[in-house]
Each structure stands twice: as structure tokens, then as C-alpha cells.
Design brief:
This protein is of the alpha/beta class. Helices cover about 40% and strands about 15% of the residues.
Amino acid sequence: MKHLLSANDLTRENAIEILDTAIEMAGVNDREIKKLPTLRGKTVVNLFFEDSTRTRISFEVAAKRLSADVINFAAKGSSVSKGESLKDTAQTLEAMGADAVVIRHYASGAAHTLAHSGWVNGSVINAGDGTHEHPSQALLDAFTLRKAVNQDAAGAGLDGLSVAIVGDIAHSRVARSNLTLLKTLGAKVHLVAPATLLPKGLTDKADSYSYSLDETIDSVDLDAIMMLRVQSERMNASFFPSEREYARIWGLNQDRLARLGENTFIMHPGPMNRGLEIDARSADSRRSLILDQVANGVSIRMAIMYHLLAGGAE
């Protein structure tokens, strides 16, 4: 595997190999000297056309812990803001000898274009493209859930688990990647959203879908519930009456938290709109894996680069 562009690129075996490697990488991150020489001499470029904090920093830290040289490239303040195209930028990076490009872009399909255009010869890792996919987030979510359910999870999938993905599914690249990867790993996926934010192309792939969060909580024995951020910046129309109405019908609140099973985990890819899709009590409850998701970002991204750039060699 040379690139990671989509969760569809991952077979069950590929995904489990990366998750198992992330366990080893987590051990490195717990050591006093958090370094491996694996990618010494390699250059990794973080090419971010959209703002990001957690994703960009975790990719940067991951590459440095594998001893790679890292170049951070932000579109703001660069030649891109002066009108330079993706092609010109990519060819500049290729001239600098980039072995891998981690790209986040506002256009769906940008990572695929970069990987198959011939503009760069190195590996391309999709760190989020438009409303399309975010495969590394899906891997870290699967890693976090597997670790929470079974601490000795090496070699295991997520067989038999039931996960609800709730909220702004239409605009969520995280939802698309998670739906694919969770199914690949054997989980059952239930989609919940307002009708205006639930595309038919995704409901066809899910095990069930509903327009009512209460109905799903009452009818499905959930192992995890993943709340999605309402992406107002991608909305050019009114998809629901008001934020107050959204929180009342589709938000995870104290009442719904109490009705979930005692062992149901709470997840959110961040950043959170507290009080909208999730309230503070739910986000900070003992069942919340939200901070674990953030912490696991470095380990899973180390594992991804290890497999793409070092061939998964010992």
C-alpha cells in the first residue's frame, strides 16, 4: 500500500495490521525517549489548505517521533493565497524531495488527484478532503474503541459491536470514513440525523438509519455513540429550524446519557460545539472517550507512516 486516500483502501487485514502497530507505537510514546529511527532521512510534508490543530500537530509529532524531517506548509500566507494551483504547489514539493505528503484540502477528491496525477512520486495521506473522507480519523476512532472494549485487542476487529453515528452526516468526512471502516472491521453502524442531513447513498450502506436519536437509543443496544460536529461553515441553506431545536431533538444531553447502557462509550471527533450536539455532562462523563481519541492520534498516525514509508518492516 503506497497511499492512504480513503477508508475503502483498507482491507480488514490492512486495518488490523495498522491498529496492532499503533499499540506498539503507543508504547514508544510512553517511553522516556520517544523516538524511533525508522524514517530517518525521509521528508514528510504537511500540506494544509484548511485550518487544523489536532490533525496537523499529531501528524507532525508522529513524523518526528519516527525521525523524519518535517515541513509544515499552510496555504494562508503562502503562494497559494496568491493564486498558485495545487499542481504548482505539488511540483514544488516534489522538487524538494518529499517522500510523503499529508494533505488536507477543502475540495473533495484533492488527495486522490495529488496521488494519481504524477505530480508527486511519494506517498499521499489524506488528512481530510472536503466532505469526502478522513481515513486516519476513522483508524484512530477504531483504535480508541477497540482499546476501550478490549485492552488486549491485538489481532481483533470490532465484530459484533453496535455504533451509532449521530448528527451532521451530510457534511462529515469523518462519518463517511467511519461508516466504511467500522463495517470493514465487523461492527454494525446505525446512522441518526435530521432527514436533511442524511444522504441516501450512506443510509444504503448502514445497518439501520433513523431521524430520531431517542428512537435509536431505545431500540438499539449501543456499544458506542459518536456525535458529529454541526458544520455550519459548510451549510449554504437552513438544514434545521434552529440550534436550540437541533440540540433538543438530536443532541446528546443528560437525559439521553442516562438512558444509554452503562457500558456505552461516548465519542466525538472534535472540535465540539458544547451545548449543541453534545452537552458538557456527556462530553466529560466517565464513559467519554473524547480525550482518548485526541491522545491516540499520534500513535495511529505513526503506524500509518510506518506502513506506508517503511513497508511495515520490523
